[in-house]
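[step 3/7] inverse_fold.run input=structure_tokens len=187
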């Protein structure tokens, strides 16, 4: 059975965005170092399908395709090429078509569990906050990869609506002060 992996940037005080979704804090320490990029690349390499919410989905492919095709010196170029090649599924009840992704409006838990039972590599979700929160509340996330940024913002968007007990499986610290923690749900 395939796993659903979540990779998100978070603040040290646990927010995934500012009160209005701001994410300028992700770039405070500049560009990611080679080790950070390699770990992000490795997570994506183990997956072949991206799950996207209705806010993240539109424009997602175009952004990464532009990086892949037109920005060879961008440190994210190799990851962008991976993302462009992955199958993309947008979960939405308002979007009916997207030229670069499948659109799914069925029951979230049923659809994700059906995807997990298909052959292939693992599934990956990057955000947004409300979509990820729904996946978490339905206990659909199998592995959590949080890139913890050395900044506190005091208030903002959270993805957890209830208590979740997790086990830390690995932790990698980077020169820019960020830490990648991998957690799995307990129970």
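[step 3/7] decode complete -> sequence:
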């Amino acid at each position: 059975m395939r796993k659903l992996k979540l990779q998100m940037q978070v603040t040290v005080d646990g927010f995934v965005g500012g009160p209005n979704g701001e994410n300028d804090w992700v770039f405070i320490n500049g560009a990611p170092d080679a080790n950070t990029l390699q770990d992000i690349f490795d997570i994506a390499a183990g997956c072949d399908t991206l799950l996207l919410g209705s806010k993240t989905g539109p424009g997602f492919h175009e952004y990464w395709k532009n990086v892949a095709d037109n920005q060879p010196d961008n440190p994210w170029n190799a990851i962008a090429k991976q993302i462009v090649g992955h199958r993309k599924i947008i979960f939405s009840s308002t979007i009916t078509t997207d030229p670069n992704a499948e659109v799914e409006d069925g029951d979230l838990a049923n659809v994700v569990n059906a995807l997990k039972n298909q052959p292939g590599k693992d599934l990956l979700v990057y955000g947004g906050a409300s979509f990820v929160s729904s996946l978490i509340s339905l206990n659909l996330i199998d592995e959590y990869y949080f890139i913890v940024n050395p900044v506190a913002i005091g208030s903002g968007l959270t993805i957890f609506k209830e208590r979740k007990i997790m086990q830390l499986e690995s932790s990698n610290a980077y020169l820019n002060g960020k830490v990648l923690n991998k957690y799995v749900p307990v129970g």
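[step 4/7] annotate
The CA atoms of residues 54 and 92 lie 5 Å apart.
The chain has a mean pLDDT of 95.
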